[in-house]
Structures are given as C-alpha cells and as structure tokens.
C-alpha cells in the first residue's frame, strides 16, 4: 500500500474538521435526517435546502452540493437543475447520487440535464447504478444492487472518462476511479445493508470531504474509508440494526487519522 496515498486520504478527515465545510444537500425524504446528523458527527455543517427560490443563492455560500435522486419529484428536479447551474458558475463541487437510475428512465433524463446545464464532480452509487450508467448490464432490485461486482472497476474507469469526474461504486468491495488512478476498499460491514440510508449518508460524507479538499479522488476515498471503518467499529458494539444506526453516528464522531490508517484495507491501481 502506498503510504503517500494513505497519508493524503487520512489527512482529509482533519481538513474536514478544521474547515467545517457547509454541505448543501438536496436529498431524499427517507434519509434526510440521517444525512444531516452524520455530517455533523463527521465535522461538517449540513444545509437541507431545496426550495427553488433559494437554491441558486444558497449554493454560492456552500462548500459542496450533494444531489440525491432517491425520492425525486418535480419540485426537487427543478431545484437540482438550478442548484447545479449555480454550482458551475460559482465553482462549487457537485456530488451526484444516482439512486435507482438503473430502474428509472426519468432519473437518467435528470442526470443528463444536470450534466448539460451544470457540472458533476463525483458520481457515487452502488455497483448496479454505476454499471448501468456506464452502459453495462447490472443486477438491481429497486434502489438496491444485487450485482456480484464483476467488472465494477472497469465500469468506474469508463464512466469517469466519459463524464470527466470521480466515480465510486459501492458494494462488498468499493471501487473508486478518476480515470487515471483507482482504489479498491475492502473495509465495511454487512450491517450497512440492514439499515436505510447508509448509501445516502456516505454520499453526504463525500460532499463534506470534497468541500474540504481540492483532491476529489482522495476525498472520496477518505469519505468511503471513514464510513466503512466507523461501520466496523459500530458493529462490534451493536449487532442489531437499530442500535447499529445509533452507534454508527458515535463512531463517525470518534474517528481520527490513526484509526483510518490502522484499519485501512485499500488496494491502489
């Protein structure tokens, strides 16, 4: 493992806590509270602003914009497009979570529109969503991926080159690429699949990390590693979904660079 790469990744946690980035979230209603709370525990500041009349100006004040398509409606669609336009004008990083894009033509249309009028710096989805966006066949069930992960890294690389952004595909292993360099993370816990919103919370953390660092590839690796290490710690103390959710917040709050370095299982490509 490259110690230089790992040093870059782990230092971003401290950068988040020093800079306290404001993460503007337009996210789904199922997990909005979880996203806000995990951002606070991570050291960032959440703003769950989606009113059309406010988003353009609010993006200007933000360190990052997190767009989650999970419960997409017409009002959110309009706000997302306007917010992404503002992000392009004001050079604010945009993290897109294409929830259920493999099962919804409408969501693909919205993603294309955001790409046309705004910008996307990071696409973070499960393996099924990322393979679908990359034009590969994927096994999905609603918002969940049941894909084996075969070809996931290749899909990340291809989509990254196509969209000129960092791409992350999450699953039993997590794959991240900026089209030139890649990482595979093998940390985490199956308990993430037993609670609603683990992926959404991770997307919000990616927003915080990207809001604190210019190195978007390292920022996304750092956010995913942080979530996974915290999950591993949480499941030791709470082996049922309800208590795991609560303990996860505590473990995110208690993270430090040393814990990330000691626990990291990353392969660099």
Automatic annotation (TrEMBL):
Q: Which SUPFAM superfamilies match?
A: Ribokinase-like (SSF53613)
A GO molecular function annotation here is:
hydroxyethylthiazole kinase activity
Alphabetical UniProt keywords = ATP-binding, Kinase, Magnesium, Metal-binding, Nucleotide-binding, Thiamine biosynthesis, Transferase
- Pathway listed: Cofactor biosynthesis; thiamine diphosphate biosynthesis; 4-methyl-5-(2-phosphoethyl)-thiazole from 5-(2-hydroxyethyl)-4-methylthiazole: step 1/1
- Name the chemical reaction catalysed here: 5-(2-hydroxyethyl)-4-methylthiazole + ATP = 4-methyl-5-(2-phosphooxyethyl)-thiazole + ADP + H(+)
Q: Where does ATP bind?
A: 124, 170
| Protein EC | 2.7.1.50
Q: Where does substrate bind?
A: 48, 197
Q: Provide the cofactor list for this protein.
A: Mg(2+)
Question: Which Pfam families does this chain map to?
Answer: HK (PF02110)
| Family classification | Belongs to the Thz kinase family.
Q: Name the job this protein performs.
A: Catalyzes the phosphorylation of the hydroxyl group of 4-methyl-5-beta-hydroxyethylthiazole (THZ).
UniProt name for this protein = Hydroxyethylthiazole kinase
Tell me what organism the protein belongs to. Clostridium lapidicellarium
Give the encoding gene's name.
Answer: thiM
């Amino acid at each position: 493992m490259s110690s230089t790469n790992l040093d870059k990744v782990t230092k971003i946690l401290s950068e988040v806590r020093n800079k306290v980035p404001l993460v503007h979230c337009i996210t789904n209603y199922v997990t909005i509270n979880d996203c806000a709370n995990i951002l606070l525990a991570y050291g960032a500041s959440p703003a769950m602003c989606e009113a059309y009349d406010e988003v353009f100006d609010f993006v200007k004040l933000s360190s990052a914009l997190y767009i989650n398509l999970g419960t997409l409606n017409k009002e959110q669609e309009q706000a997302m497009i306007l917010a992404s336009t503002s992000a392009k004008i004001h050079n604010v990083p945009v993290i897109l979570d294409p929830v259920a894009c493999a099962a919804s033509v409408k969501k693909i249309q919205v993603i294309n529109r955001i790409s046309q009028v705004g910008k996307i710096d990071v696409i973070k989805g499960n393996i099924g969503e990322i393979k679908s966006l990359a034009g590969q066949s994927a096994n999905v069930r609603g918002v969940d991926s049941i894909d084996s992960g075969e070809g996931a890294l290749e899909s990340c690389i291809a989509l990254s080159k196509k969209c000129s952004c960092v791409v992350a595909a999450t699953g039993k292993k997590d794959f991240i690429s900026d089209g030139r360099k890649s990482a595979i993370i093998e940390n985490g816990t199956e308990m993430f699949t037993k609670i609603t919103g683990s992926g959404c919370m991770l997307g919000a953390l990616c927003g915080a990390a990207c809001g604190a660092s210019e190195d978007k590839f390292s920022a996304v690796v750092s956010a995913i590693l942080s979530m996974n290490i915290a999950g591993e710690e949480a499941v030791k103390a709470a082996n049922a979904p309800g208590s795991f959710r609560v303990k996860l917040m505590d473990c995110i709050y208690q993270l430090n660079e040393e814990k990330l370095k000691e626990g990291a299982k990353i392969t660099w490509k």
